[in-house]
Amino acid sequence: MTLTGLRDGFRDVEQRQRVQAMIASRLADDREPQGCRYLMRFWWQLSMPYREVSVAELRLNVGQQKPEVAVDLVSAIRASHEEIGAWLCGSVQTFPVLQDHGFSATVDSRGCG
Q1: Residue 44, CA distances (Å) to 24, 29, 30, 70, 110 in order
Q2: Rounded to an integer, what distance in angstroms lies between the CA atom of residue 34 and that of residue 25?
Q3: What is the pLDDT along the chain (113 residues), one digit of tens a residue?
């Protein structure tokens, strides 16, 4: 599965930005630096005409469920704008917004939280 030309599959810039926001806020967990780095390369690739990352690299470097979610997104982009909307709804229900647990734990342990 090729990951080039994805930017042309969105209905408009707003739909692409909603997808990118979902990836950044719910999939790219900075507590997992390697996986986060590759998911953010995928995030960038949604706006670019060239390949920044491959499916194989995502599967190798990102946790268990998230590479398949990215592959599902690519399939949705290739299918229709409605499929992208369905992907967004399903992902929002599946993945909670990531919180910075490291910062919160530090603040709580000092009694300042």
Answers
A1: 10, 16, 16, 13, 37
A2: 16
A3: 678 889 999 999 999 999 999 999 999 998 899 999 999 999 999 999 888 999 999 999 998 899 999 999 999 999 999 999 999 999 988 999 987 655 554 444 444 34
Helices 81-94 and 13-22: crossing angle, nearest 10°?
20
pTM for this structure?
0.83
Hey, what are 52's tokens? Answer: 């920044």
| Radius of gyration of the CA atoms of the chain, in A | 15
Dist CA 93 CA 59 (whole Å):
22
